[in-house]
């Protein structure tokens, strides 16, 4: 009898927690807003990032700028895949942003990344701005290639 009561309350607690947190894929309230004016397709864009041969170099130097290439796939109004290529970004700083950005972009369905979106201590504003710029250019490339939806 004791076992049945424990099981009952365990299942009850689970159902309550699901009801409070919501189930993924339910009514779509947890989905990001759809992209407007961008058809399904894949496109590539380039933005200007930041690079340094010395990861301890803290002052901005325009000579250290580096291109960031972003390839985006849009399906049914959502960004379904993102690939970011920035081999000249500073190891341990910009490279961490490049590693984390695709999952943030596909989750939020936007290219409006901010420093606080990332689990990094160092400021990587130029890298983030370069990814945003390249992503917006990639979305424009999709619209040019495939036409308005």
Concise account of the structure shown:
With 149 residues, this protein is of the alpha+beta class.
Structure notes:
The longest helix is centred in the C-terminal third of the chain and has 22 residues. The protein has three helices and three strands. A three-stranded antiparallel β-sheet has the order 1-2-3. With 149 residues, it is of the alpha+beta class. It starts with a helix and ends with a helix.
Spell out the blueprint of helices and strands.
Layout: H1 2-21, E1 41-48, E2 67-75, E3 78-85, H2 94-108, H3 125-146
Antiparallel strand pairs: 1-2, 2-3
Task: Return the domain count.
Answer: 1
Strands of the widest sheet, in order across it, are: 1-2-3
Proportion of residues in extended strands: 15-25%
Strand count, sense and barrel status of the largest sheet are: 3 strands, antiparallel
- The H/E string reads HEEEHH
Q: If you compute it from the alpha carbons, what radius of gyration comes out, rounded to the nearest whole angstrom?
A: 21 Å
Quote the distance from N terminus to C terminus: 61 Å
CATH topology: Sufe protein. Chain: A
The overall pLDDT average reads 77
Shape verdict: globular
Counting DSSP E segments of at least 2 residues, the number of strands comes to 3
CATH architecture label name: Alpha-Beta Complex
Structural class: alpha+beta
Stretches with pLDDT under 50, minimum 5 residues = 4-28
Overall helicity: 25-40%
Give the tags.
149 residues; alpha+beta; Sufe protein. Chain: A
